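Troubleshooting: if your tokenizer reports a length mismatch, compare your output against this known-good record of 636 residues.
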Amino acid sequence: MSDGLTLTFLGTSRGNAFMNELLAAVAHEVEAAGVRTEIVVDAPPADGSRVYVFVPHEYYATVGKELHPTRRQLARTIAFCTEQPGTPWFEVSESHARSAGAVVDISSDAVRELRRRGVRAEHFRLGYTDYWDRWGRDEGPARPVDVLHLGAVNERRLEALAGYAATLWPREARIHVPPEAAKTRERPDFLLGERKWSCLASAKTLLNLHRQPAPYFEWVRVLEAVANGCVVVSEHSEDCTPLVPGEHFASGSLESLALLADGLLRDEERLAAMRLAAYDLVRSELPMRTAAERLIAVAEKLDRSPGSRSRAPRRERRLRHAAGELARRATWDPRIGSVVHHQEALRKWSLRADAGLKRVVLAQIELTRRLAAQEATLRGEDPDVLRVVARSRAYAGARPRVSVLVPLYNHAHEVGAALASVAASELRDVEVVVLDDASTDGGQEAVLGFFRDTPFVPGMLLAHPVNRGLGRTRNDLAEAARGEYVFMLDADNELYPTALGRLVAALDDDPGAFFAYPMLEVHADGEPETLRSHLPWEPELLHLGNYIDAMALLRRGVLLELGGYAEDLRLYGWEDYELWCRAAERGLRGVLVPQVLTRYRRAEHSMLAITDLDSTDAESVLRARYPALARRRSAG
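Known-good structure output:
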């Protein structure tokens, strides 16, 4: 080895911390092989004894030009590439890698593609490193988490995870789907270092869903899991040798992964055998030290020949530059400007029309309510009296800890399923309180039928003489509830049996939290579409919009102290969002239970059809009430 050689691993302060962590693992193995290493951020130190290693697409996307390596430094730099062919990140990585003195890539497919394009790349074979290992093949400690997911969000993954809920709801799951944007630090749903490896060591299975349909193998995620004894359940993948599907990890179609994981969890002997076989194989046949030693050899070559670099021939570079200039010139067409202006004018006109239509609809709702109140008064009824329609046989003797509150307005065909999901709850000290907000479709009969069929469920049916809206209905329900906790369940949604118990446990474990909320499986006609409420409580995100559904378990006393839900008609459909904003303004917080425990029905006739028409008035009200929120929105 070259005397005095130092491998400088160049991370970024504004890029994805996951990449810095990968470089740290490689540096650990290089150091163990006898070569000095250092990890620096953003600016490469100017020293002739160093050879640099960086992830090109991550570095150039996040570090200012004034800190970029000089041409001399690039000649002594190894581009450490991590992206798959066919993605935009691969193209960025390839373009920058050409300027480096040497190129390595963790994907054999990517190496082949780079070589096809004239880039002399080598394969860096990822493998086992004790840098990740917090298990050490010790079968003694318990693994309380049945199913774990750690992949960044995209619609493909969200739809698949929503589809898994019907299989995984009985299991202890931790579903983390952090934002896809670069994450510079740890988040509740983005684990790094000790938290991540300890989490893997506490889990039995890890779901591995590809970001794209392409069947590439996520080697870093898989190896971190294997090093901690967590059995990988992955979509079918290529380039997984020497790991063998069915022997070292489970493999199947995207739709089947939950069933595969559930099957493994039912067969503890097979699960243990797979865990140990994978760990033993990567330790014996796939040590990362081998790749680290090859990286050292590449670095030594650069150290001896600092001018060598993998670059395209000069003529090819000239042609690429000319093609780029032509492409830039071809993007302007004088006709495009007028088309854009027409489209923008049409968009603004459409927004104004939607805003006007929403105001007309809301005015009609208000007028209808006033007329109904006058008619009730003429009949000798008090339109403000909350009437008790019925109580179930079990209601009087119950001392519920949780009250499930169901506002009912014209959901006669769905409310039965919602109530049945409460009856199926594994938590027993529960009551259900339904308030019919002057439905016109026979919803009360459906509730009374449920009380007759399930007399063991403590329940009460209330009614408004005239329609009062969602905010007032929820507030009246909260006043009528007897539980310490209240759960808001719209009449067309459902709970999985473990939902209430796990939400109660979350609030019991965190006495300072105002509410706990689960992830929601959004479905239409029974077919899963996506997840909702999958982000953890982050008040600073509220300025972007509402990301937490109303289906949450709240401390009833705190809710009443806050004044309940907004009843301002301008906030129609935004009642839960306004409550979260108010809670954030008061310094209160929520806690996410990272499991899919509820089902949200997406239907064309829901109130969202009106809510989504326009948000101008609602946003204006929120800005006036919560200036801090308005400042964040303006800054964003």
